[in-house]
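Write out this protein's structure.
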Amino acid sequence: MPEFEELNLSPEARAIVEWKGGPGGMALVCGRRVEAEIAERLRNARAEELFPGAKSPAGALAGLWLLWSGWDEAHSVAQELPTAEGSYWHGIVHRQEPDDWNSGYWFRQVGRHGIFPAVARGAAQLAASHPRAEPLETKDWDPERFIRYCARARALPGSETEQYALAVQQLEWNLLFAWCARPGGRA
């Protein structure tokens, strides 16, 4: 998770992120459903109240839904957000669906996002702790390349390639969530 001290999270947003120690990581494929208590809390919250003064409160809300496996809800929020962040969350949702073509479409709408350099650096660092994973070119972050990588990883359940893909996906979530929740959006 990003360092909370640097983020514009309300006490309720912090409580949702930290509820029961967090969700334990996102899957490469949507499957489990958001827990009822989290769903209720998110439905009753306004993005601007959860993330006061944030660059993209709705983007951060889409991220929270996604973190807690609320794919339909994350999709709805992202679809209504006409920004690069909305398209980015939308691309992640479809990557996890999995609908690789649709995911690629939404990532092409993003263009070059400000978190790409940090994702590339972080993915390269994570590769060192997954030496048996299939290699992923990380010099310049390419979300469409990562879509294809995740497709291969889904076909190798329990493999180090899958574990690496999961780790990179969580890094990507952390960076995009921080971008949305911070004032000015710097990750």
